[in-house]
Amino acid sequence: PKNINEASKDENWVKAMEEELDQIEKNKTWELVPRPTNKSVIGTKWVFRNKLNEDGHIIRNKARLVCKGYAQV
Fold this sequence. Notes:
Helices cover 27% and strands 26% of the residues. The protein is elongated. By secondary structure, the protein is of the alpha+beta class.
């Protein structure tokens, strides 16, 4: 999928996104806090990849939530 709207229509991609969020929560990678008024917020985006076996067949959908670090000031 090219974006979150396309991915959210496919249950396999939804499952992959849920797995990523579960891992973020389990590993305590980040925590949700109130938005500070005097600071800029770094956005996030989803990156979607297919894991392939040696024959080129899709064996797993992988979704990653990444920071838009290029938007930092």
